[in-house]
Design a protein that fits this description.
The protein has about 140 residues and is mainly beta. Helices cover about 15% and strands about 35% of the residues.
Length: about 140
């Protein structure tokens, strides 16, 4: 399980720009991202396998196009329950707070990509412990004893 893409945007509802590394800030989210702040959806996760499936279904998309912050490989996010803690890279820890989301309006991503998989296949979290993350960093599910 690893991070394959990190993406940030200055405005909500838009595609995000890929970065090789970023800082997760405790109780805030990804530094410089429009979705960061004092709420329960500070950072978004999406499986790279979901993005690949969208491509196979004919969508012209890449990392960041669904406004996900962190794309991963090897994790089926729909099977990770709310409350699970996730260790990212060397030191950052996030807690999963929401599976999927409700989209009241079709945003720019929907119109640019032709579909938005975030309501169905994304997961959201809060940053419990900050730290630098990089593409290629390992991800671990933390099992509370």
């Amino acid at each position: 399980m690893k991070i394959v893409s990190i993406a940030i945007s200055k405005k909500k509802g838009t595609r995000k720009v890929q970065a090789d590394q970023a800082s997760l800030i405790q109780d805030h989210g990804l530094e410089g991202d429009a979705h960061a702040g004092p709420w329960h959806r500070q950072v978004s996760f999406l499986a790279s396998e979901s993005i690949e499936k969208a491509k196979k279904n004919g969508l012209d998309v890449t990392f960041g196009d669904f406004a996900e912050n962190i794309a991963t490989s090897g994790i089926n996010w729909q099977m990770v329950p709310v409350g699970t803690k996730v260790h990212l890279g060397d030191s950052a820890i996030a807690k999963i707070t929401q599976i999927g989301k409700e989209c009241n309006n079709k945003c720019a991503i929907y119109y640019l990509a032709g579909d938005c998989i975030m309501p169905r296949e994304s997961i959201f979290g809060m940053v419990l412990k900050g730290g630098k993350i990089h593409c290629g960093d390992m991800i671990r599910i933390i099992r509370d004893l």
